[in-house]
Amino acid sequence: MTALSPPPPAIARAFRLALDAASAWAGATAPNPPVGCAVLAVDGEVLAVRAHRGAGLPHAETAALDACRDRWDAVHSLVVTLEPCNHHGRTPPCSEAILASTARAVWIGARDPNPAVAGGGAERLSAAGLDVAFVEGPLAAESARLVAPFAMRATRGRPWLTLKQAFTADGSMIPPPGQKTFSSEASLDLAHALRRRADAMITGSGTILADAPLLTVRRTPDPRRTPRRLAILDRRGRVPSAYLAAARECGLEPSIHLDIPALLADLADGGALEALVEAGPTLSAAFLAAGLWDEHVTITKVARPGDPDTVETVLRRPVV
Ligand code: AOF
Ligand code: ZN
User: What is its EC number (predicted)?
Assistant: First the structure.
């Protein structure tokens, strides 16, 4: 980077803002990935932070630059969680928007796994004389995690699978009689945040017959503009039509499937980037045994009443 650049702590702070902005829209952007961008002045002042809010809407870089129109000459650097695009898709290339600004430097969190984009944006910008750097370490890992569901769908033809399981202190997934859940308020908040960032919910007929869960996002703001899919594995046609009607009433789009591969292919075809498996012990075990999971979140009640649940998140393989 040139001597005249925002200082490294300012870049790290801007990355935090860009990552948080992108995360706030995860679950709303499919089939596009969530992306965040911050624009900085040369002294590190943050001029604007924006996220991509959905397919067909402006990309993060274009939106962030647009928000700087009244400080146009102060624009010096961009921090963006995903490599800027260099192609005409539903929107014009971000590389052109950056080149039309006074920006001199671009820090990038992750390469774009889209073959139509990969490498093109970074190369175009550096060929035009801008300083372009890919960050490393935790910021790169967080950026890669944001785009991992998009990459999973593009390369494997299935959504990223987050498998959530809640256990009682004695290792059971079944709530005590008369209770629908046994998790703490904080764990329920987490469960709804996991739903919010997913494009689809996956469950089994057994779970629906046992306690007809709503599987909607309720405890956190949900910016999604289209119905979230609810894919149900139901080999024997046991799910009552009244449940499906109630799910539709709640803004979900339910579908019935006979096997897991067909279910996953159908979700990916429909544009789903990430799916949350919220199922009972048998179906959860089937996903785990088949290696069909990318992130495993376990919430375990501890024996001492009042103590916080233990939450563990395991990634199946590193994202960078
Ligand atoms: C960016 N910034 O904020 C996003 C990017 O059809 P389009 O024009 O929306 O292009 C979609 C592709 O652009 C998408 O597949 C992905 O490769 C990239 N997404 N790129 O520079 C953004 N959302
Ligand atoms: Zn773009």
Answer: 1.1.1.193, 3.5.4.26
CATH 3.40.430.10: which residues of the chain? 158-315
Among protein residues, the one whose CA lies closest to atom 10 of ligand 1: 89
pTM of the model: 0.94
Residues 113-158 pLDDT 10s? 887 766 789 999 999 999 999 999 999 999 999 999 999 999 999 9
- Residue 62, strand partner residues: none
CB 263 within 8 A of CB 159: no
- CA separation (Å) from 66 to 58, 63, 90, 252? 10, 5, 18, 34
Starting from the edge strand earliest in sequence, which strands make up the sheet with 36-40, in order? 46-51, 36-40, 77-82, 105-110, 131-134
Q: What's the CATH architecture for 158-315?
A: 3-Layer(aba) Sandwich (3.40)
CA distance 158 to 161: 8
Among the options 45, 61, 96, 312, which is catalytic? 61
- CATH of region 8-154: 3.40.140.10
| 52 known ligand binder | no
Of ligand 1's listed atoms, the one at least distance from the Cα of 113 is 17
Let me know: does 275 contact 161? Beta carbons within 8 Å: yes
